[in-house]
Every structure is written in structure tokens, then in C-alpha cells.
Amino acid sequence: MSDEAQLEKLARQIVVCTKCELHRSRKNAVPGEGPTHAEIMLIGEGPGAREDEQGRPFVGASGKFLDQLLEQAGVTRSDVWITNVVKCRPPGNRDPLPDEVEICTSNYLQHQIKLVDPSIIVTLGRFSMGLFFKGAKITQIHGQMRKVEDRFVIAMFHPAAALHQMSLKPAIMADFAKLPELLKEARAELGKSSPRAKVPKKKTTSRRK
Ligand code: SF4
Predict the structure, then answer these.
(1) Is 206 part of a structural domain of the chain?
(2) Domain range spanning residue 60?
(3) Burial of 105: CB neighbours in 10 Å, binned 0-12, 13-18, 19+
(4) 155 lies in a domain?
(5) 20 CB near ligand 1 (under 6 Å)
(6) Does the Cβ of 30 fall within 6 Å of ligand 1?
């Protein structure tokens, strides 16, 4: 089965998933979307209210801000694969619980990362950062690119946090502005050219229930 077909299969499993308690309150699970072999994968925390309504990632206010951040880095939404740590909205926008994170990432996110096989993962917020840098503080490591196994990971603030706390906005804007340069570094280190030869610009889209 092709990587694209496997991503589609995962999306079909996610929209009907009942593996953790978060399925009880969701309207729509949000599997994620993007080109099958995107060079950059963005991982947020979990769907918000608008994402839960639409079954797509980053479609609310923070999504609009994310689009601006990507644009200033010369990247469009259609170039990146976007998903979340948990695929269903935690009720009342609470933090996802450790067992919810464990169940969802081991069943879905880890497979999505392997299939998309990005050169760079950008974690948005402390929950996705925690998957790669246990015990790290986002205020100390944001914007720094670190090698994790066979790819690079950069921790950044979540766009929603920057919208609520204006003092974070310059930092997230500066971190995103570095993305083209960091991508060049990552390509050189990983011995990959631009654009990646294996990239078909076909989208693996999320599906709604
Ligand atoms: S959050 Fe993840 S594990 Fe939990 S029900 Fe949704 S898709 Fe399944």
C-alpha cells in the first residue's frame, strides 16, 4: 500500500476512533492534512472549537495567524502537513491528559510521522514539544533546531498562545522567519535536495465523520 493510501486509511480510522474518552465530546475528529511527503510537518496540541466543527486543523483564529507566519517564511499551507497531538477536541479546551496523549500518538501520530517522513517537524506548543524534548521548557528552547533520530525538530510557541499573550508574538514571528534558513540546513545535513524528489504534490486530506 502506498504511503498516501496508508495516510488515508489512518484518517478513516481516526474519524471513527473510540480509543480514548475524547471521542465522547467531539463533533468531528481532525486527522490532519497536507501533501503526502511534505518537507515540513507542523504538530499542534489538539483541535479547537472551529476545528471540531469542520474536521480540519487550524481553521480558526490561530489558523489565520499560522497562515501569516507561514507566508512570511515563504511557505504556503499547501506545502506543509499539519496535524495535532490528539485528534479530538478536549472538552472545554482543557489540556489533553497523559493517557489520551499516549493512546492517540501511539496509534496515529507516530505512524503519520513515519509515512510523511518530513525533514523538519515544527512543534507548536508544549504538548507536541514534550513528545520530542521531555522536560524541556519552551521559553528556553523555542526556535532552536535539534536533530532527533533521522530528522530535525524545532519547538515553537503555539499560535493561539501568541494571540492571547501579545508578548510572545515577536518571538513566534522571529522563529518562523528562520524557517527557510533552517530548512536549508536540514536539507544539507540530511543530504536532500529541494524540492524532494519523491514529493508528489498530492494531498492527503482529513475526512469527516
Ligand atoms: S483523541 Fe485520538 S485516541 Fe482519542 S478518540 Fe480521538 S482519535 Fe481516538
Answers:
(1) no
(2) 3-190
(3) buried
(4) yes
(5) yes
(6) no
User: Which grid coordinates belong to 80?
Assistant: 506543509
Comparing CA positions, the residue from 162, 150, 145, 208 lying closest to residue 64 is: 162
User: Is 124 a domain residue?
Assistant: yes
Q: Ligand 1 mean position to 126 CA, how many Å?
A: 19
Query: Higher model confidence: residue 76 or residue 104?
Result: 104
Ligand 1 centroid to residue 73 C-alpha, Å: 32
Residue 136 Cα to ligand 1 midpoint, Å, equals 25
| Overall number of domains in the chain | 1
User: Is 26 contained in some domain?
Assistant: yes
Q: What is the pTM of this model?
A: 0.91
pLDDT tens figures, 109-123:
999 999 999 999 999
Mean pLDDT for 51-71 is 94
Residue 86 CA, closest ligand 1 atom number: 1
| H helix and E strand count, the chain | 10, 7
